[in-house]
C-alpha cells in the first residue's frame, strides 16, 4: 500500500464510507483528472483504522454506479495490516469525461482533482471534454469575437472567465464556449489553482 506517501493528487484516504454520494465526488474527480487510488480504512493522518471490506465494497459500487454518470470504472484490492483490513480502490483516468457526481440536492456536478482536494470543474473544461476532437483545419480563421478574446489573453498569469467577459464585453457563456474551442485548437493553456481557472495564450 502507499500510505506513507500521504494524501496527494492521486491518493486519498477515507476512514469509513458513511455516504456514497461523498465518495462519488472523489471517484468523479479521479476519473476526470489523472486517475487515483482511494484507501478506505485509513485516517487522514495515515493511521490504519481498518475497514469492513464487504460493506465498503457495496458503498463504492453504489457511489460508482448510482451516484456517478456515466458510471466510473474501478477495481478493488483488499489488504491486511496486522489485525485490520484496508480496501484499495483504483480509478484510471477516463476517456468518457466528464463524469458527474450527484449531490444531496439532486444536482449533477463534474469534479476535478487538484492536490489533495476535489473541486467543481470549470464550465470551460466541461465544454472542452465534450468537444468533438476530429482534426480542425480552420483554426486560424477567427471571427471578430474570437480575435478580440485572443488579443485579451496575453497576461502572463492569465485571466478568469469573469475577467475576460468584463474586458471584452462578451457575455460569459460565449467566452466559455470560445475558450473551450481555443483549448481544443491548442491556442491557450488553462491553469487551475484552488478552484479558480485562468487562461492565457501558449
How would you describe this structure to a colleague?
With 202 residues, the chain is α+β, with helices and mostly antiparallel strands. 31% of the residues lie in helices and 26% in strands. The strands form three sheets. Strands 1-2-5-4 form a four-stranded mixed sheet. A four-stranded antiparallel sheet has the order 3-6-7-8. β9 and β10 form a beta hairpin. α1 (20-32) packs across α2 and α3 packs across α6. The model has no long low-confidence stretch (mean pLDDT 91).
Structural features:
four-stranded mixed β-sheet, Arc Repressor Mutant, subunit A, 2 domains, alpha+beta, single chain, four-stranded antiparallel β-sheet, about 30% helix, Methyltransferase, Cobalt-precorrin-4 Transmethylase, Domain 2, about 200 residues, 6 helices
Secondary structure layout:
Layout: E1 11-14, H1 20-32, E2 36-40, H2 53-65, E3 68-69, E4 75-81, E5 84-91, E6 100-102, E7 108-114, E8 117-120, H3 123-129, H4 144-152, H5 161-168, H6 172-184, E9 188-193, E10 196-201
Parallel strand pairs: 1-2
Antiparallel strand pairs: 2-5, 3-6, 4-5, 6-7, 7-8, 9-10
How would you summarize this macromolecular structure in one to three sentences?
The chain is α+β, with helices and mostly antiparallel strands.
